[in-house]
Amino acid sequence: MGFLDRWLDSLPDEPEEIEDDWELDEDEELEQLAVDVSEPRECIYKSFADDPGPCLRCGERLEQSAQPYLVATRRGKRITDSFITGSDFGWFCTNCPTVVIDPDDVDEMLQHPMSGWDVGEEFTVVGLIDLDAIPEDKQHLPLGDDDNPIPLVEFTSISDAEEVGRRSQRRKRGKTSSDSEKGKRRRRRRRR
Fold this sequence. Notes:
The protein has 192 residues and is an alpha/beta fold.
């Protein structure tokens, strides 16, 4: 039995009735950044209090957006479980393919696992789930079954804010990462 099946089995048979007697003031707007989850993007882990600030790659504005993610956990070298979760812990760049995620938010979410989940001590956010990529004739099937694989759009890279800052500094000084690697290889050869 997969983790989605366990989760579905844990839900009550009858959903709770939700009251929808709220209304928006004329001044209020519900805005959600339209995120193309099919676009591959870089993920940057950065701890922050309320707002992550500008994009660490291009300097443009980041906007928070709720999206479905695949989170994998491990204990030591052993993969423990993976989870699909809908969350607003991602802050998406309005200019380049980058998402900034506060790892403390993910960790907090993993502190409240469903019964039967094997949440490891470490985690990684693997990528976004492109729900629009699920064929209409398979939308009734559980995700992850042989007949309905998870439409995962893996992050092109996952790094922390400090790594991105170092890459940015190298670019500003005119060095690329390949220049830096060539220099390291040259230094190794000279030492021999």
